[in-house]
Amino acid sequence: MPDIIGRRQFNLGLGATAALLGNAGTLATAGAKAPYRGPNVIIVRFGGGVRRRETIDPKHTYAPFLAHKLVKRGVLIPNMMIENLEGLNTSHAEGTLNILTGRYMSWRDAGSKILEDRLEPIEPTLFEYFRKAYAVPAHRTLLINGEDRPQEEFFAFARHKHYGIKYRSENLSLYRYKLFKFRKILAERSADEAELKKAQAEYDKLKSMDYRGVGIKQTRELERFWENWRKDYRDSGLINPRGDRLLTELALRAMKTLRPALMMINYQDPDYVHWGNKSHYTRAISIIDKGLERIVELADRNPFYRRRTIFVIVPDCGRDANPLTALPFQHHFNTRSAHEIWTLIFGPNIVRDKTYDRQFDQSQMASTIGAMMGMRTPRADGRAIGGIFT
Amino acid sequence: MSNAETVAESSSRPVPKWNRSVRIFRAFGKPVKFILGVLLSLTPLTAVIVLGWLARFTERKSANYFITRLGRRLPGDAYPERATPPRHFGWPGWFVDDGMRLAVNGESPSRPPVKKGVAGFLASRFGGFWDNLKAGLQSLTALAVLTLPFGALWFLGWWSGWQNSFTKGYEQAFAGPAISLLGIALSLMALSYLPMALAHLSLERRISSFFHFGRVLKLIHTAGWRYILLSAAYVIAALPVFLANAAPVFIENYNPGISDMSPEEIGEYIGAHHFWTSVYILAALLTLRAWAARIYARSALDLYLRDETGWGDTRIMGYVLEENFDLGSHRPRTGPAKIRAVLLVILLPAIWFGLVAQTYVGQFMNYKWWNWLNHPLVQIPWFPPLGPWA
Q1: Is the pTM of this model over 0.90?
Q2: Quick one: what percent of chain B has pLDDT higher than 70?
Q3: What is the pLDDT of residues A270-284, one digit of tens each?
Q4: What pLDDT does residue A41 have?
Q5: Distance CA A180, CA B239 (A)
Q6: Helix B263-305 and helix B315-322, axial crossing angle in degrees, nearest 10
Q7: DSSP code for B77
Q8: B254 CA to chain A: closest CA distance, Å?
Q9: What is the interface pTM, i.e. ipTM, of the complex?
């Protein structure tokens, strides 16, 4: 089997997917927008920045569910790389856009500050390819984002003349919930004057963070989602799960109520190791692993997802393995280890229990996911990975 | 017994002829002493000896200041041997007692009492080591009392703040930053005080003298802009130490082959880096301590000549009076005392904030918990080697 697939293999893959699901008319053709009946795809960004050693290396892993159980269900590609290009930063925003667009440097700087990048994708994302190819409402394409990197909220669509905001995904995040919450508090006017003033100030501050003019209103389905969330967790922000556990909770709820066909979960907490505590890195990996276990377990049980969901687990970037530092887990210094990542893909029509030990590139993820979902990704650079489909 | 009535032998006496070891070491002079100092500063325990040696070095440099500036003695001296100009003090010995002492109030005659037997042998061969160790432990104790509190607050503030951030403890988000700010405030006061206090301790040889706040602050005030320049020199001299710690994170950019080096090769690299950094640190400390010694001596003399109470009782002035230097040509500094005080209170903390900033940024680049508690130019002159560490 070749490492990358050409047009014939791509169409064979689409046909195989369609045949598996018993829907002969689901190939996306130019000009037609059929309802989507292909496999659901859940992309797990195992971030922010992890090394192979602490994740997929069975002897040193802090993610035992991933390294011992999940690898048996699909194809592990232990040797995926982020290309070493001039000006390319091995970091979270860039890695996420590499995955979503299938191109390196597919962004422009929209006013970054120190310790707060603000990137704007200029090439279409998987969400846009998907919603342009199929008649899929926004709430069924979801980007689930953490609270520490709100700037990645705004990767739901690109600044591109043929794609763009019309085909954007929806977002689930604390940022979105707070916008909803403060809007409700101000509308209800049930709090006292001091609280209302504080709520207005917070609301204005959150609105000002929207550096892309996405807008604050979400779809009716998302509004309902947040209503239910508010009923359970109320307004203090002190009751709901926190950190990466929050993302797991949002993903689980979304799967039960919104049923996204394409969902990306931006785990992030391993990045806390920047500040000097190694246990934050290893502990965060374990928390993501536990979250994965819950999500996979739900997907195995839920009739909408059972046997119709492909998981794509891939880090945004690696981390250093610098022998000269006491804590060698940074990732901004262009080391080889920071370019070294991996990917695990499992689900229907995917080969099981295989380690595909050849070198692939992070920019190939978008085309590969496109092949899974029967959609073309014309602006993606990397070609789809072959040899993983049955 | 007054200074004039002491029968102490002065520094102008030649080295005792019996001390052949001293002659041999003197022949090799400063380079050997410097190399020995670098080797001793390679471990934290032996670096305490270097700390003590630097205290004795400071003491001698203060005395040399007077010999240079006031070498002429008053006529009609009661001691004919003082007809010749006094000889400058050399660098103290590391192990051997070179027999040179500040003659003050009859204590510590320049020629140590000749002991017989094993005690005598040990005293002559290792008396210098014992003096260094004693002085080092004194300095270490004083520095620990002054600097460990803020160092501990820096460490705790950083650790607890990031620990709380990782666990998303919103309820006590203020704790880490509050502790850090308190530590920084204390550090700015302590660091502004430290160089002059260390010089005073080196001369007085009593731990309690480090905490003669009134005297040390008067010395600082009298020194004025000279002390401001010295403080700035400390912060600037710390930059190469910062770079020595931080630059290795970029190592793969200028030495891509390092990730393929064997552990032995990496060990050699680390060893060389440690050695040359220690060379720089010792050289910087010799410069800074010599400068501090001159400032101290000049300020003490100014205060004595201004007839300020109690300065005649200090060891440095005891030495000056014992040697019968001609003080008539020296004019004590005067000037706008209040303006000087205001400038010192504003400028000194601002300058020392540069060292605080280097510490915090350095910890982000290459984290080592020890670096919260110790800076080689300020406390124990030991640079933690690169590589995986505590």
Answers
A1: no
A2: 81
A3: 999 988 899 999 999
A4: 98
A5: 48
A6: 60
A7: -
A8: 11
A9: 0.82
- H helix intervals, chain A: 7-21, 64, 92-101, 126-133, 174-188, 193-208, 220-233, 244-257, 278-301, 336-339, 365-373
Backbone phi, psi, residue A125, to 5°: -95, 170
List residues in chain B touching A: CB distance below 8 A. Answer: 158-159, 162-163, 165-168, 170-171, 248-253, 256, 258-259, 261, 266, 269-270, 273, 363-369, 384, 386-390
C-alpha A365/C-alpha B216 separation (Å) is 67
Q: At A381, is the secondary structure helix, strand, or coil?
A: coil
What is A7-23+35-169+242-373's CATH number?
3.40.720.10
Residues of chain B positioned with their CB less than 8 A from the CB of A333: 249-250, 252-253
For residue A269, give the nearest of B163, B166, B170 by CB distance.
B166
Q: CA B31: distance to chain centroid?
A: 19
Q: What crossing angle do the helices spanning B315-322 and B175-204 adopt, rounded to 10°?
A: 20
Residue B178 has pLDDT above 60, yes or no: yes
Short-list B386, B359, B333, B362, CA closest to B218: B333
d(CA A10, CA A372): 9
pLDDT band at residue B214 under the 50/70/90 scheme: very high
Bond into A48 cis (ω within 30): yes
Rounded to an integer, what distance in angstroms lies between the CA atom of residue A63 and that of residue A55? 6
Asked if B384 and B241 count as a contact pair (C-beta separation under 8 A), the reply is no
CB contact under 8 A, B251 and A242: no
Query: What band does B200 get if pLDDT is binned at 50, 70 and 90?
Result: very high
Helix (H) or strand (E) holding A78: strand A74-81
Residue in this structure with the two tokens 């091995």, named with its chain if needed: A90
Distance CA B331, CA B289 (A): 24
| pLDDT greater than 90 at residue A229 | yes
Q: What is the pLDDT of residue B78?
A: 55
pLDDT of A49-78, one tens digit each?
Answer: 999 999 999 999 999 999 999 999 999 999
Task: Please name the amino acid found at residue A278.
Answer: K
Write down the pLDDT at residue B9.
Answer: 38
Asked if B170 and A326 come within 8 Å (Cβ–Cβ), the reply is: no
DSSP E strands, B235-276: none
**How far is A329 from chain B, CA to nearest CA, in Å?**
10
Secondary structure of residue A193 in the 3-state scheme: helix
Round to whole Å and give the CA distance between B300 and A311. Answer: 76
Q: Convert B280-337 into a string of H (helix), E (strand) and C (coil).
A: HHHHHHHHHHHHHHHHHHHHHHHHHHCCCCCHHHCHHHHHHHHCCECCCCCCCCCCCH
A336 contacts chain B (CB < 8 A):
yes
Among A255, A187, A262, which Cα is nearest to A225's?
A255
Instruction: Determine contact, residues A370/A126, Cβ cutoff 8 Å.
Output: yes
Residue ranges per structural domain of chain A: 7-23+35-169+242-373
Write out pLDDT tens, residues A15-31.
Answer: 444 444 443 334 444 45
DSSP of A218-261: --HHHHHHHHHHHHHHTTTSSSS--THHHHHHHHHHHHHHT--S
Strands A170-172 and A141-144: parallel
Q: What is A25-75 written as a DSSP string? A: T----TT--BPP-S-EEEEEE--S---STTTT-TTT-S-HIIIIIGGGGEE
Question: What whole-number distance in Å separates Cα of residue A75 and Cα of residue A352?
Answer: 6
Q: Residue B113: what pLDDT?
A: 55
> Which tokens belong to A281?
């890195």
Which pLDDT belongs to residue B150?
A: 97
pLDDT in tens, A77-118: 999 999 999 888 899 999 999 999 999 999 998 888 887 888
- φ/ψ (deg, to 5) at A119: -110, 150
The amino acid at A80 = M
Chain A positions in Cβ-Cβ contact with residue B261 (cut-off 8 Å): 323
